Amino acid sequence: MRFILTIPALALLSCMALKNDPDKPASSNNFQNEFLNRVNKLRTSGCKCGRTYMPPVEPVTWNNALENSAFNHARDMYRRRYFAHTSLSGKSIKNRIEEAGYTLSGLRSYAYGENIAAGQKSIDQVMNSWIRSEGHCKNIMNKNFREIGVAEVNLYWVQDFGARN
Fold it and tell me: Which of 117, 124, 140, 158 sits 20 to 30 Å CA-CA off 14?
């Protein structure tokens, strides 16, 4: 079995306005479409991540299980006031995506990764932050990833990537 794990973090914290604490993802088709358009425009054009040129790769598709995983982690970070890829209860991205229904058992190969950010007030701001960060940009451009789910809870952003074979 082969797997790839990439999980850079981006700590761009600022004063955050408190909003209602949601119980489930509130993403709309507009949210999903804007993220998919931004990510896939970059993926299909190729770009420079830091000093490394990343050639064009296939676009990703939206995955609701990855969105749910991203939402649960963003909500947990917001509620418990921390910023990390590993939850305070010790759950890794692999644990979270599997709990959300993105199963990996019995596969020949799989890949997963995660970008996190905090404090950005829009999709445009968080995507620009991730693109300017070499590790985050490489996650976005990773040719092994074929699916994506993204969530934002009170300015905590999580972008989960996956592929299953």
Answer: 140
